[in-house]
Amino acid sequence: MADRGASALSLPDDWPAHPDPVLALNRMGGFDWDLDTGLLHMDAQAHEVFDLRPDEYDGHPESLSVRVPPVEAYRLDALVARSMKDGSENYGAYFRIRRRDGSLRWAHTQGYIRRDGTGRPRRIVGIVRDATEELADSEARREQAARDAARREQTNVVQLTTAALAHARTVQDVIDVVKDTHGLTHLGATGLVMGLVEADRIRLIAEGPAESAVPETRVTRLDEPCPTSEVVRTLTPRFIESPEEFAERYPVLWHHVTGLGITAAAYLPLIVRARPIGVMGVLYSGRSGFSPKDRSVLLALGSSIAQSLQRAMFYEREKDLATGLQQAMLPRTIPSVRGADVAVRYRSAALGRDIGGDWYDLIPLPGGTPSGAGRVGAVIGDVQGHDTHAAAVMGQLRIVLRAYAAEGHTPATVMARASVFLHELDTDRFATCLYAEADLSTGVVQVVRAGHIDPLIRDADGGCRRVFVDGGLPLGLSAEFHSLAYPVGTLELDPGTTLVLCTDGLVEQPGADLDDGMRTLVSLVGSGPDDVRDLADRLIDVAEERGGDDDVALLLLRRRGLETPQSGGRLQQQVAPGDPGALTEARRMIRAAVRAWGGRNRADEIELVGDELITNVLMHTEGSAVVTLRVFIGSGRRLRVEVEDSSSALPRRRDAGESGVSGRGLLLVDLLADAWGVESRGGGKCVWCEFAVRDND
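^ that's the sequence the OP posted. Answer follows.
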């Protein structure tokens, strides 16, 4: 109820500098609501009015929902919004609070709206107090207030309940609104039962209080002699106006409810498009008869609930269908990976947009070590859109990318081929994607990014950081394979380190910058559990708490410590002309392989020879160099460096002369390597060299 004295509120500009003593003497609490930040600060007396301990309130108005019933909150929100919109300086209202012990008490609030020079509301300051005694000063006043409130509530019950039901998305939400917004209190009712029609039966889905339903009526047939079945069969409401009428018309049911003190009841069919979808029973104690106005209100309420139930049932069916389709598009199982712990999660979008294009995949790759950790490709991606078309494109793209990776193509080639495939699908959708190829024997990870967000690395000690990776265009934006450039970044996973890949639904928040979202995610991952499965659950729980209209895919890969020395392996890196970063990454890959596979005693020699072979390709051919590192176990451990190019011209020794700056490459290879040679490879060649190495000290 709005307060007639609201205009009397007048507060100094610096309020509330020291308001507590004055307000406390009058049993009033003060609040200061910053509309820019959304934080609502309350003093100790205000906490007492709401029956909240300081540690139960975090400064956000939503925290008051444990004390303010939803229907009261909707009414207050509407009043405040209207006052801010129409230029009012202040407002006032009475509202109810549900205290810790479950009792309802009246409270009163007055607020003064502070605006800036443009008239925009920036701050609300005011008071709140317990108004229960004020409204109960005299019996006459109580009776008059009760009559007035009853008239208002009877008049507005459908409007209030409909407003609350507008936010209901599931069947349980509808039940909660009917039970928890004091709809029963508005109607003067003491009990409620609700059931849904399923085939030729009615299944009870709600009751309140707990003893309102009879155990034998949890599931009833439509031909049974009970009021719920009768109103569904006839599509006609039943108003039972006295205990005698109840006992006469439904003697079996009356035998079970005699002890509940029921004196009247209204059973309403819930009808949508001339078809019954359920039934609702409203039970009363201490009343008899239903006036025409009572019946109209109940029928209108039943119609509103029926429409909301139908929407909720459609939503849940669509959600189940969407979830099933999405799960069918995602990998059925994730293969176990020697040398790594893996966790994957998927969360569908909120607001009914439940079919999306987000996906993850884990691909075993050829070239793993026979006795331990292997090579694996980790994929995370997001096709544009939230519909069945996006899901269908995602399914095709996931399979194609998996096939390209399993064929042994380099990460850059995998991404480029996938982009061409998506473009040739003749769809208007594009996709972002990140592909990480990990050699778990060395910890070297080669990463290619197509418009996707960067990965995160969580160290064994819990520290977490964002890894910035140069990226190319999203998939599907170019039809020319040779025009696509996807830089390859290299990073290292030490034992106990976790690679975190996710889609932007976990990062983006309405009104927040992407970098801020990434920093929040870094902090969340760093403070999360050590186990990758627990960490994945925690991240998805956070996504659920935020809600949002985007789906989330998540893949976590944690490299385990190696239990035995590794006896084989393979790494590969493509180095394009004019890309000094790729050359640096290749050198890093060589150093990591030497460190992991043994041979630190020859690390400088191996890196120097590899660098020389790569440089020769970049200087004397027009294409890229593909660098491959292998380790072989036989009579001894041998590390082999291969550099492949597209030129068929064979290398030859040259006399550089005393002042020459080139021509010594093969002399250097011949001097440092234990063996080297040249092999023809289709339209090109491969120069290789081998080094005898021993286990690391």
